[in-house]
Amino acid sequence: MAETTLSGATHPILENDYASEWMGIEVLALSDGHATIRMTLRQEMLNGFGMAHGGMIFAFGDTAFALACNPIHPAPGEEGTITVASGVDINFLKPAFRGQVLTAVADRRSSAGRSGLYDIQIFAAGAGSPASKSQPSSPGELIAEFRGRSRTIPKK
Predict the structure, then answer these.
(1) CATH 3.30.470.20 is held by the domain 5-154
(2) Which residues touch 38 (CB under 8 Å, ≥6 apart)?
């Protein structure tokens, strides 16, 4: 699998996630209700205009969303549940291009019962990005905002 480990622990939802493996997603940080991931845009992730395909940006944000919703180690009594998307919205703000490094930062905004609300910001840096030149430690320019609504359901 791709680099999907953090401090030697593999997140259980990535063990058989072949889409995230193909995308080359790397987990940078995980905590309760939070995830930070990154990947580099490759040629096969581009659309006919030479920019990142919207579906790639969406899938990348969706992975960060899933990681923020599902703990590495479920609490006692929660082992038989998973948290999935009940709905999402995405706003594409700027294009991203081949060679840029994308970073997604997902944070829980609210949780009540089996429902949650998460915001995911997606940034692009590198490959000539102005943000990467002025602020090397910055995740780059904000290119998309993803809002996810979650629902915890029984595992099947």
Answers:
(1) no
(2) 25, 26, 28, 101, 102, 103, 104
Residues constituting the chain: 156
Judge if pTM exceeds 0.90.
Answer: no
Q: Which amino acid is at 125?
A: A
Rounded Cα distance between 140 and 125, Å, is 4
pLDDT in tens, 96-107: 999 999 999 999
Pair 118, 66: CB distance under 8 Å:
no
